[in-house]
Design brief:
about 15% strand, 8 strands, alpha/beta, 10 helices, Rossmann fold
Length: about 300
C-alpha cells in the first residue's frame, strides 16, 4: 500500500473551523503537513488549531471571510510567514441561502456566489501565484457538490456556484499542467450542518452524535453517506505526491463509496442536410435526440 506522506508540505484549508474543513485540516496535519486553519469564527479557528496541535500536528489560524482578493492574499501570506512556503490550497468555505427561484433575493444569490465561486477563484489564484514562483508544483483541491453536477431544488445559487467550480477545475488542469500543479474537485456526501437536517438522514445523524451509533450499510454503501472523516482521506490523497497524475477530475466520496463523476458530453445527436428549422426539430425531437431525455436533480435517498 502506498504511504501518503506530506512532511514538509504546507496547506491552507478554508472554512476549517468545524465540519468537513476541520476533518480535512486534521487529516493533512496527521499526514505531516503544516496547516493554516481558516474560519470567520475566531473561537472555532482557535479551537481547531488547539485540537490539531494536541494531536501532534502544526497549525496556525487566519480569521478572514473568504471571497475577496485581500482575504485570499492574507491566507497565502499567513502560510508563507508561518512556514515559508505553500504547497496545497483546499477551498472548503461555504454558506447556504436556499430558496426557490421566485423567492431568492439578489443578496441570497450574491452571498453564495461570493463565498463559493469567487472565494474559490481568488484563493486558488493567490495560491497558484505563490506555487508558480516557488517552481516546485502544487496541489489545488476545491469543494464541489452533487448539486453542481445535477442541480437541486431550492439551490439556484449554490448549484450554479458548484457547477462553476467544476468548470474552473477542468480549465485549471490545462492551464497549470506545465507548472506541475494539479487541480481537482472533491464531491462529498457527509453528515454536516448542511445535510443533517434532511429528514431521511436526520435520525441516523442524531444517533451517531448522541450515542455513537454507526451509520448502516444502507447509508454508507447504498447512499455513499458518511462522516466528514470519511471524506478527509481523499483530500489528503489529492494533496500528496501519490496523486501527481490526477488532475481536472471531480471525485465523489462519502461513507464507503468512492466515485468519479463524468464530464458533460453529448449523449445523442441527429443531423439534417442544410440545417434545422423549428418545424424539423419539432418533428425529429421525440424520435431522435429527445427520445431519452437526461434526468435532473439529486436522486432521493432510498433506504
Amino acid at each position: 500500500m502506498t504511504h501518503v506522506d506530506l512532511s514538509g508540505k504546507v496547506a491552507v484549508v478554508t472554512g476549517s473551523g468545524r465540519g468537513l474543513g476541520l476533518a480535512y485540516a486534521r487529516s493533512l496535519a496527521t499526514a505531516g503537513a503544516a496547516v493554516v486553519v481558516n474560519d470567520v469564527d475566531a473561537e472555532a479557528a482557535a479551537e481547531a488549531v488547539r485540537l490539531i496541535t494536541a494531536e501532534g500536528g502544526r497549525a496556525v489560524a487566519e480569521v478572514v471571510p473568504v471571497g475577496s482578493t485581500e482575504a485570499a492574499e492574507a491566507l497565502v501570506a499567513r502560510a508563507v510567514d508561518a512556514y515559508g512556503r505553500l504547497d496545497v490550497m483546499v477551498t472548503n468555505a461555504g454558506v447556504l441561502r436556499d430558496r426557490v427561484l421566485w423567492k431568492m433575493t439578489d443578496e441570497d444569490f450574491d452571498t453564495v456566489v461570493e463565498v463559493h465561486l469567487r472565494g474559490t477563484f481568488t484563493c486558488v489564484r493567490a495560491a497558484v501565484e505563490r506555487m508558480r514562483a516557488q517552481g516546485e508544483g502544487g496541489r489545488i483541491v476545491v469543494a464541489g457538490s452533487p448539486a453542481g453536477q445535477r442541480g437541486n431544488f431550492g439551490q439556484t445559487n449554490y448549484a450554479a456556484a458548484k457547477a462553476g467550480i467544476a468548470a474552473m477545475v477542468r480549465t485549471w488542469a490545462m492551464e497549470l499542467a506545465k507548472a506541475g500543479i494539479t487541480a481537482n474537485a472533491v464531491v462529498p456526501v457527509a453528515a454536516t450542518a448542511m445535510t443533517k437536517t434532511i429528514p431521511v438522514f436526520a435520525p441516523h445523524v442524531e444517533a451517531l452524535e448522541k450515542d455513537g451509533v454507526a451509520f448502516p450499510d444502507s447509508l454508507r454503501k447504498g447512499e455513499g453517506f458518511g462522516t466528514p472523516e470519511d471524506v478527509a482521506g481523499l483530500v489528503t490523497f489529492l494533496a500528496s505526491d501519490a496523486s501527481a497524475g490526477v488532475t481536472g477530475q471531480c471525485v465523489g466520496i462519502g461513507g464507503d463509496k468512492l466515485s468519479l463523476w463524468s464530464h458533460p458530453q453529448e449523449v445523442s445527436v441527429a443531423y439534417a442536410d442544410g440545417g434545422w428549422s423549428a418545424e424539423a426539430i419539432a418533428a425529429a425531437w421525440p424520435v431522435t435526440v429527445g427520445r431519452t431525455p437526461e434526468t435532473v436533480g439529486i436522486p432521493a435517498p432510498v433506504l
